[in-house]
Design brief:
Layout: H1 8-20, H2 25-40, E1 47-52, E2 58-63, H3 66-70, E3 72-74, H4 81-88, E4 92-94, E5 122-132, E6 135-145, H5 157-173
Antiparallel strand pairs: 1-2, 1-6, 2-3, 4-5, 5-6
Helix pairs in contact: 1-2, 1-5, 2-5
Length: about 170
């Protein structure tokens, strides 16, 4: 894993301990996002965490926090990569995501108040299920945002494999 700052197995051990020390879901989410951001070299606003409800009808946003009050994603949505990831329980890696039809409503929402510029669209994405005891518990998405033509590093299988390992640890804690 030389392309990434930490050994994934070491990070999983540290992350498991850090998550166990947190008292609430908000704190656990923040710890998870910080670790994912550092490991995969993305900004924290390029990380999304979703939890699947017990009846498997909707995915609720955990992160970004602003999205919690705005909405959810129906499990049956055909336009949502997060919903597809949860339904199929498999990894999706797409370095040409901006050119693919997808639900882009949430990409248009400003994550911070007082910022006039429109948010940058997602160009590249990895979407991974959080699987606990053989069941999908939620989804983690890591993206690279930018304008068309921006030089953004591609995601690779190494990044996807690291995210699968981290998703297992995070899924157990959420």
């Amino acid at each position: 894993m030389s392309d990434y700052p930490d050994s994934v197995s070491e990070l999983c051990t540290e992350l498991r301990q850090q998550l166990a020390e947190q008292d609430d879901l908000d704190s656990r989410s923040a710890v998870a996002v910080a670790a994912l951001s550092r490991q995969l070299r993305v900004a924290e606003d390029e990380v999304a965490l979703f939890l699947l409800d017990e009846r498997k009808t909707v995915l609720h946003f955990l992160w970004p926090k602003r999205f919690r009050q705005i909405g959810f994603i129906p499990y049956s949505s055909l336009d949502s990569l997060a919903a597809r990831t949860a339904r199929e329980g498999r990894v999706f890696l797409n370095n040409t995501f901006a050119s693919v039809h997808h639900a882009s409503f949430f990409e248009k929402i400003r994550l911070k108040d007082g910022i006039a510029d429109r948010p940058k669209p997602i160009q590249k994405i990895i979407s991974v299920p959080m699987v606990v005891a053989g069941e999908v518990r939620g989804v983690i998405q890591i993206s690279r945002k930018g304008e068309e033509g921006d030089e953004l590093a591609d995601f690779d299988d190494q990044a996807a494999n690291a995210l699968v390992e981290l998703a297992s640890v995070i899924g157990e804690a959420l």
